[in-house]
Amino acid sequence: MSPAPDTLDDRAIVARVVDGESELFAVLVKRHQRVVYGLGLGFFKNAEDTGDFVQDVFLKAYRNLSSFLGKSKFSTWLYRIAYNTAVNAIKRRREYQSLAEEIEIPDFDDPQRKTLREASREAIRGALDDLPERYRVCLDLYFFYDLSYPEIEVVTGFPVNTIKSHVFRAKGLLRDKLRDEAEGDWV
């Protein structure tokens, strides 16, 4: 008796799907659709376009499953497909927005603290919007998707040192922008 599909790792499932057990692809979809959806939402900002994106990504992954060689994690390979699909769609639309815009800051009972938090959220959104797209993408993948630099390299195609540089520069630009805004409020 073979092990239950839910207990298999992604590579084993891929091998079985490639060998003809196509129904097992649903296990991979179930495992990874939430993260692919989140990545799509960061790009498309609405449920309808994001739903279409997720379907497109998994269809592309299924069609190309035999090209997965196992040199990286399946999730990294899948995120590469997702990233390229999103970037190509956005190039047609030209409207990338950071997933960081969806950060929820908890409400506080104190109206003054609530106002301060909302002002902070708006400042962060504004600062993120001012970043070059390549910096925002690297920052999103690093901080909001917890991808390592080598995984971001696979996803974006940027060399690791470039990614490190983009993240470092993005943090510096954010810090400077937020400092300037904070100082402007006190003047």
Chart the SSEs and their pairings.
Elements: H1 10-18, H2 25-44, H3 47-63, H4 74-93, H5 111-130, H6 133-144, H7 149-156, H8 160-186
Helix pairs in contact: 2-3, 2-4, 3-4, 4-7, 5-8, 6-8, 7-8
Question: Summed up, what is this model?
Answer:
The protein is mainly α and 187 residues long.
Describe the model.
- The protein is 71% helix and 0% strand.
- With 187 residues, the protein is mainly alpha-helical.
- It folds into 2 domains: 1-97, Orthogonal Bundle (Rna Polymerase Sigma Factor, Chain: A); 98-187, Orthogonal Bundle (Arc Repressor Mutant, subunit A), CATH 1.10.10.
- The chain is elongated.
- Residues 101-105 have low confidence and may be disordered.
Distance between the termini: 73 Å
Query: What is the count of β-strands?
Result: 0
Could you please say which CATH topology of the largest domain applies here?
A: Rna Polymerase Sigma Factor, Chain: A
Sequence of secondary-structure elements: HHHHHHHH
